[in-house]
Protein 1
Amino acid sequence: MSRVLTWLGLLATFLYAAGRVAWPDVGQKAGTVMALLGLFAVLYWGRRLRSSAPLWLLLMIVLVQLLSWGLGYLHHPQWVPDNPELDRLAKWFLFIGMAWWLGGSTRLTLWVWAVAVPGFLLAVWLEGHGWQSWQRGLAGGRVGFGIHNAQHVAMLFGVAALGLASFAPRMCSAGRLALGRRLAWCAMLIVCLVGLVVTQTRGVWLATIVASLVMLGGWAWRARKLSRHAEASRHRAWAAVIGVLLAIVVLFSTFHGTVERRLLVEQQVITSVIEGDWGGVPYSSVGVRIHSWRAATEWIAERPFVGWGGEGRSLVMEQTAWLPDTIRQRFGHLHNTFLEVLVGYGLLGASVVALLATWVARGTWLAWRGGVMPGDMALFGFGFFVFFMIANLFESYLAFWSGGYVFTLIMGGLVTHIWHWQRSSGLTVLVFRKAVR
């Protein structure tokens, strides 16, 4: 492969990472170049990667969408679009291009992730009209900083906070520009944690807390495994953990009233659900989700294997007769990525997504055990997996650009290391045999 093409791919990758939120037009076009050129490069030059799971799963998801669309024409032609809308799930595989351009390099992966955080925070400042939004949030109001809506900005803050916490020992270590790195890390982490609170998104709060606990458990386990010769590294790791925990305690003590008010506002919904009184569930923020999920289960039960096609989520909201007209007109999605996959593409589509998640999770573990992926990167990968699974239970992040952006960034970094491990070991992720050379 030519050096010019390689530099073009890397430039597109960095522009996508740094500019997708702050400069959407530039970032989106760069992402398209990165993905298409990367996929072409994998198919043309990636002899050992063409048969890897992500490429086969991409083919499978395209076939599933074609099947669902074709059978939909036979069953409900009035609700089927003129084209199969293959990008609905195929865009989840944009990470293939990024993984190729990163070339298994930890250094490049960390730099791509590193430029994404200040790019996002710059967008928060520019789109959120500077101090105005922060002042409103600090006064107890809910703010979205002008980027889609509060839920999506909260998700971005959550991922950035987990990443900053994961790489705390690396950022706070001694060496060149140590003071600058430490100050930048502290400033960005504080901004992200405050941003998490003022966006007031309960699903993201839950996802962040659970993911943090999982990562802290992993961090503690790894610290115990360090040899005696790594005493200083262990102390730095625990110091960073304690520092993050103290920051969280101080933060939530400061915003106690805001957090408590946000958590208690849906008490009636929870009570009605526990008692099985569906008619008593109001159409509040959580109530809308409960009613839409209940409607989705009815549609899934009717076509459980192939679903209703790309417009399935809209059909649930528009064609479920017992939903109020105001709700049917206002919402076009289910606020749950997993239900949307089941409604749209049935168990076949969900199986492909589950296989992808299994391959990446196991591959991350094997790449770390094989010494190819750093421990802090593997820890962040698993923390992100937990966070994203929970967050997508309460919002359809992967149906929007924000979720696709984060998914591509993290998956690209993990998959490039998994491919590196496969090449160096000659093994495959799900079957322990020599890879085809």
Protein 2
Amino acid sequence: MSAPAPTPAPTPPRSVPPRVGVWLIGARGSVATTVVAGCAALTAGLRPPTGLVTETPAFAGSGLPALSSLVFGGHDTLDCPLPKRAEQLAAGGVLPPGLPSAVTAELTAADREIRPGGPLPGDTRDEEQLIAAFTADLRAFVRRNGLARAVVVNVASTEPAPAGPALPPSSLYAAAALRAGCPYADFTPSTGLRHPALAGPAAASGLPYAGRDGKTGQTLLRSVLGPMFTQRALDVRAWSGANLLGGGDGAALADPAAAAAKNAGKERVLADTLGTTPEGQVHIDDVPALGDWKTAWDHIAFDGFLGTRMILQTIWQGCDSALAAPLVLDLARLLARAHEHGLSGPRPELAFYFKDPLGDAPSSLADQHTELLRFARRLTVGTGEQR
């Protein structure tokens, strides 16, 4: 009598990577919509990861959360559903034709996770009540979706600098992120986490955070050109610029106070890379017809050998949302991994992404990129590191 066939060993369950939340402030804006639609497109293999630095080989072993593991939600004061917003962006050439319909399910799922922001006109809640409400929204998001952690990224329109001690909306959201235990990134020049009242809570939170003001166009170019002039010992006499843009960002920056907040980061890049502040200013003009597209012009007057006077002019024409979205995904993944790795405090290694970075960071884009790659290697070593 033949022996019975051995019972096959049970197939071990497939390991499911932990899910990570990305909570976007301004969740129904152009940048946020492009982030959600773009992540869905990449996950489905519909588009290559162009512009996504964390998808380059240098980050392959860094333990970053997979794009497919990201779950989106956020706060906004607008009520336009994400699928409709995506259709508008496709009509304007921001998203590829047909993409909104291809990722409708993902857009709809993210839209269900968006909660009302504030304060809205007539809102009688005080600062503590608003922070508590925003914190509750974040905690419920994490609990409802079984997330390992969530990262908060502010991609809302630029707000003017506060005139008094009251917390502006960006700082209310930042305070809620700290209270909910979420790493935080200021992708706008708004006050956010830099309000003096949040210095103590941020330091005590044990969370990693980064900012501020995403470096997507004109300032990205300045951070490359500024060091070039310095390294070649060329004397920059004046550096002037102009920005023409539309969309929500253009409308927000039509406010001189908001524009001043935006320009501060641009000026800091020049001062840091040149060692002095040259003559000239950046002018920002709202041109609604341009929609999400931006034209940035720079006029640089410099002296060469024997005082020979020369000029460099540059023109940058790009789509703000398409430039910003991959950076937002990079930052969410890097901060989530930093949190998992036990890192805390401002992350100067992420200066590569910002006009006005936190911490002691170099100003040259090349040096910032070197620090970012060093950070990627650091994230591959061990777990539970505290700093």
Protein 3
Amino acid sequence: MNPVQATITAPRPRRAFASLDPLRQDACLAAGLAALASLIAVTLGTGRHPDALGWVLLLALHVPLAWRRRAPLTALTVMIALIAGYHQLDYNHSAPTAASMVILYTVAAGGSPRRTAAVGVSVVALMVVLKIDHGVAGLAVTFQITGWIVSMLVLGGYLRVHRENTAAALERAERAERTREEEARRRVAEERLRIARDLHDLLAHSITLIGVQTSVAAHVLAADPDRLDRTAVARSLDDIAETCRTARGELRTTLEVLRDPGTPDARGPLPGLHGLTDLAKAAGVTAELTVRAGEVPPAVGAAAYRIVQEALTNAVRHGGRDDLTVRVRVHEEEQAEGSVRVLRVRVTDDGTGGAAGEGRPPGFGLVGMRERARSVGGTVEAGPRADGPGFAVSAVLPLGEIR
């Protein structure tokens, strides 16, 4: 027989007492304390040895301990009545001490400070009434037992507060852990959305430009084969190659983020207003660019760049004209209240199409522009021009308060 097959995994040992339910645990505790009290009754302490009635009272006063956690006040009331009768018959006075201390501790550990104080005062007052006939000796015993009573109540109250603090600390730790997990999931979702937007803007713009440049080269080749304009064809091919190189560089930057998101400079410099000139030159159509803005926050500059890029892509794709003209205007201004600066971006064309041409399903371009604007607290409006043919995209991006 294979020795590995013959190996039997022994079950993990469990503590027998801990595996019991609370009622059985308390019943076992009551039985143990009853045995201890019986031993003390015949060996130690003052008072006479119990007779038949004494044994009945001594053993009976331990029975309520089995329900000490379920009904502590009821158990305490029953035990006080039995203990009072036991002591009044002058049986061994030390025997019930352990049981009485346990029930007082239980009441303090499971109740409010006000209830604990009320129980302590009531028990001490009852004990004074029972011992007042014993003179000075009875009062001395009363003071001694009062010390034990207060000690048990303070111990129970301290452990109750400790449990509450521990439970509160665990709850705060769990809440903090859930918050960290939710924050991590939110950041992952935001990063995935950002990468998706970058890839969409990059690929849609680059592929659209390549398509326009390829169409230009094909038109030159097919227009008059006998008088081929080699210069125009070479220019179109150079534009295609430049577009591919630019797209490859941006794509490499985005993929570096995916491979090593912990690298601080993996994302490279953000695109901004400084890149709008090259963007307009490579648009593949006549683009008129006007920029009247100073230094803006990098996030705002990147959002403006991507909005213009997507607007140019949509204009080229859906403009419907070979002689399309796109006007891009970016400028700073103060809002009506005069306390906040904003960057206004407006891209208009004189084409015949909309954001999605006829027969084409709507894409993610307008959604991406709105998400870009929302990421910096701005807004985007897009739709057919009211002052003539074509399409218009207007964005308002806040720059902060004026100082």
Protein 4
Amino acid sequence: MSAPVPDDDLTRRPGRIHIAARRRGADLTALGSLALHLPHVAASLTVVFVVSYALSHLIHLPWWLLFGSWVLSGALVFHRPCERLLARWLFGLRYPTPEEDRRLRPVWHEVTARAGVEANAYQLWMEESDEINALAAAGHIVGVTSHSLRTLTPAQLAGVLAHELGHHTRGHAWASLLSLWYALPARLAWRLLRLLCTRLGLLPTGAAAVVIGVAGALLIALATATYGLIFLPLATPYLVAAVSRRSELRADEHAAGLGFAPQLMAVLHQERDREVTAGVPGPAFSKGGMIARLLDSHPDVHTRLHRLQAHLDSRR
């Protein structure tokens, strides 16, 4: 193990740092997440088109106006007032109190200075939670749990914030939210279809047989026409989870590149000790076994510690 950096050490690395309004891009994990959701987006386009065409005859508006409005609505996730609504109602966040802001903002300024990013380009929010956690969402949201702010040292908190900044600068946050938004109509249509299927038992036997026969024929026709690609969304949750795990490791790399690897490792050690104390089973023996592991959006703590230690060893 390399010599640990003192917990309260937040001194800046030497050298001139160029400050930009934001350094937002899209790495392979962000692009991969978008690509994996393309089947859902295509299904959503179909659903919205059908609904828009039907509504156009009821409210006497051009179908393309309704359809185009939904297509362009994704830009709203980067609109600051809309982001504030998302923070409050979707993620359950709140504004920091003056005392919380005094403790949080200097740490955030240090992290963004090392990254060469304008600190005020992002909005700091708080989440009432008893867990050590943080989140990056939409285009400018960075949330921290109240427990993290209470229990972590400034250096450890900086490591956590550097990880979340990595999600923003590498495009994970905006790609995830856009994928969720544009896949929403298809997901709602699927839930409605499942609800209708549960109601088939209430239909007379003959009517239920006709509905099942028509649905089966339509499914076979679609599978033949798409060479089986219609079944690709069945594997999507596993692929999305794998990409999500990779994005977490990429965000760890971002924090390590800014010099926060030891501090982030200290937080992960605390998380591992908490799991041991609570008797949480390891990934190989967790409930659901291999399936649950494949659907996990985060890599296990041991993997993250191993990768961070390898980064420290490479810089010796």
